[in-house]
Amino acid sequence: MGHVSVGMVDVTSPLPRPSTMGRGNAEVRARLLMVEDDERIRLALGLALADEGCDVVEAASGEEALHLLATTEVDVVLLDLMLPGIDGLEVCRRLRGQGELPIIIVSARTDTSDVIAGLEAGADDYVTKPLMASELAARIRALLRRRHPASTQPRPVIRVGEVEIYPAEEAVLRGGAPVHLTRTEFGLLMELAMAEGRVVTREELLRRVWGYDYFGDTRLLDVHIRRLRRKVERDPDNPTCVLTVRGRGYKAGGLA
Questions:
Q1: DSSP states of 90-114 as a string?
Q2: Are strands 200-201 and 249-252 parallel, antiparallel or unpaired?
Q3: How many beta carbons lie within 10 A of that of residue 148, not counting itself?
Q4: In this structure, are residues 191 and 236 in contact, taking their beta carbons and an 8 Å threshold?
Q5: Tens-digit pLDDT profile for the chain (256 aa)?
Q6: Distance (Å, rounded) from C-alpha 39 to C-alpha 43?
Q7: Which of 3, 105, 245, 253 is the least crowded, having the fewest Cβ atoms under 10 Å away?
């Protein structure tokens, strides 16, 4: 496709590649719902993402997206925040309330409040316009790769205070009651638990959980730590499971 610039889309595909989002030698096409009201962006980005190995389903509004998702299975949602009718934040909240479908929000602005609002609404990741298909594809691959930290024989249960983590089942209990985590939140909790009380730096968490470097932008991690604490801590303002180590990173507390 070479280089294409349409509106807020900047597409660069330097080399031809197979139309797969490969995992090892397996050929896996990711099915993506792109929610974008600008028809030119939908067309340009849809073609570019198809080259990157995505099957793209399109929606021009929040209402259309919610309707489609009631009957159509997808692997990830690419959601513009600035939509007519039901805006992207409300769509994100509704989708997160229904389950753990990975969501990447798209913002035309980089101000902190806009990005944080999207992440607080339940998004797993964010990108800002202009968009590059190669960067988006990398983030989609990272979302679909979310798994436990590498271990030849994962422990059947890991206890962090009153929180019990079952890696094989991707299940978490607190005081015996199920805790519903997104795939990203679960990966974050597992990274801290598997460190067995050692401090994990912010940069390490960003690289291990999200799959690539964020060049000093830690808003993504900050919001996910807050979200995780709200779910696993009895008092999120005084955490005992997910602990901050000032100037260094985070660690798990109360390991058993």
A1: HHHHHHHHH----EEEEES---HHH
A2: antiparallel
A3: 16
A4: no
A5: 444 444 555 544 433 333 345 444 344 578 999 999 999 999 999 999 998 888 999 999 999 999 999 999 999 999 999 899 999 999 999 999 998 899 999 887 666 788 889 999 999 999 888 888 888 888 888 888 764 444 545 568 999 989 999 988 889 999 999 999 998 999 999 999 999 899 999 989 988 888 766 655 678 899 999 999 999 999 999 999 999 999 899 999 977 6
A6: 6
A7: 3
By CB atoms closer than 10 A (0-12, 13-18, 19+), residue 243 is middle
What's the rounded Cα separation, in Å, for the pair 20 and 49? Answer: 10
2-144 is classed CATH 3.10.450.320:
no
- Give ranges for CATH 3.40.50.2300 in the chain: 2-144
pTM for this predicted structure? 0.76
As a whole number of angstroms, the distance between CA 169 and CA 179 comes to 13
Q: Compute the Cα dihedral for 162, 165, 211, 73 and give only its sign.
A: negative
Closest to 88 in 3D by CA, of 68, 118, 108: 118
Q: Are 145 and 211 in contact (CB under 8 A)?
A: yes
Nearest to 180 by CA among 87, 100, 90: 100
CATH code for residues 158-252: 1.10.10.10
